Amino acid sequence: MSEHKEGGVLARFASPLIILATIIWGSSFVVMKNSVDVLPTYWLLAIRFSFAALVLAIVFIKRWKVLDRQYLIGGTVMGFCLFVAYAFQTFGLEETTPGKNAFFTAVYCVIVPFLYWIIARRRPDKFNVLAALLCIAGIALVSVTGENATAFNIGDVLTLIGGFFFAAHIVAVAKYSEGRDIFILTTLQFASFAVFSWIGVLVTRPALDVAVFDQDLVLGLAYLVIFSSCGALLFQNIGQKYTAPATAAVLLSLEAPFGVLFSILLANERPTPLMFVGFALIFLAVVCSETKFSFLRRKKEVDKV
Questions:
Q1: Arithmetic mean of pLDDT, 293-304
Q2: Number of other CB atoms surrounding residue 302 within 10 Å
Q3: What is the span of the domain harbouring residue 49?
Q4: 3-class state of residue 181 by DSSP
Q5: What DSSP letter does each residue of 102-149 carry, written as one string?
Q6: Residue 20: pLDDT over 80
Q7: What are the pLDDT digits (tens) for 108-131?
Q8: Which has the closest alpha carbon to 127: 302, 301, 284, 298?
Q9: 224-229: long-range pairs with CB below 8 Å, 24+
Q10: Side-chain half-sphere of 56: how many Cα atoms within 13 Å?
Q11: What gap in Å lies between CA 272 and CA 282, rounded to an integer?
Q12: For a 10 Å CB count at each end of the chain, is N or C smaller?
């Protein structure tokens, strides 16, 4: 397939690929709980992204001829932003509830349009802002209700910092993917992420018991590498390459409600009426971001005629 045809196909499926990524991440909250409990954070991230980089490097080996200095810079910046975001999100989770962690991470959907405005000098329109506000309100109702609605603490602060770097990662992908092979960029992103994680292992020297590597953990790590990394993160980067950053941020925030939905389906979490209101607001935010309510404006024009 030629580069032009490949780009056309990928552009057509940009939004569905981003949504598919959020579904995979939503399921991983339940599937990967055991891995997070038995492996120190830096070890988990280092192993996960080392193998993910290796898999993609082999799969896309014929594409490496395009590699140059700009690819290395782009991949490193993307990997660094994602590494810092994951680290702050994980350490924040140790001090706050999962629901609040999901909510404060998702503030990136509000940050992205304005951060991209600073970087690319492209001002967000009123629909970008409205979609972001609807989205954050919906996630608040889905994630921070009942017992989760506790006082603001240090874990929330750490999570908010992580949310900022998730926004920075989205903007970095938009900036460095333009005119470049997204598959090679993603591989380099994984490799740099792995390097930063191994540095974290060397600096913190967390204890690791080899006995924890039983069948369940190995299968869990395989899920993280193949689906959550090689699959979901690659889908995210491909989708972002052909989607406006503000729209991508709203679509990516679907991870939070999908996480809650899979918890309801697989972990017996009880839904509340506020959750359903939250889901409705998030759906409205996606419609606003994707269509800017153009179908309503067309209807008004037809009525006038």
A1: 58
A2: 8
A3: 3-304
A4: coil
A5: HHHHTTHHHHHHHHHHHHH-----HHHHHHHHHHHHHHHHHHS-GGG-
A6: yes
A7: 877 888 888 888 777 888 888 888
A8: 284
A9: 224/28, 224/32, 224/35, 224/44, 224/48, 225/48, 225/51, 225/52, 225/55, 226/55, 227/24, 227/28, 228/24, 228/25, 228/28, 228/32, 228/48, 229/48, 229/49, 229/52, 229/190
A10: 26
A11: 16
A12: C
Total number of domains in the chain:
1
197-206 per-residue burial string, b: 16 or more CB within 10 A, e: under 16: bbebbeeeee
Structure tokens given for 104: 């404060």
User: Which residues are within 8 A (CB) of 292 and not within 5 positions of it... i.e. 6 or more apart?
Assistant: 125, 127
Q: What is the tens place of the pLDDT at every residue in 38-90?
A: 788 889 889 999 999 999 999 999 999 999 999 999 999 999 999 999 888 87
Lookup result for tokens 């918890």:
263
DSSP assignment of 240-297 equals: HHTS-HHHHHHHHTTHHHHHHHHHHHHS-PPP-HHHHHHHHHHHHHHHHHHHTTHHHH
Interacting residues of 252 by C-beta distance below 8 A, sequence separation 6+: 18, 21, 22, 108, 109, 170, 236
Closest Cα partner for 129 from 142, 114, 141, 115?
114
Q: Compute the distance between CA of residue 3 and CA of residue 251 in angstroms, rounded to an integer.
A: 26
Query: Side chain identity at 206, as an amino acid letter?
Result: P
220: tokens are 């869990």
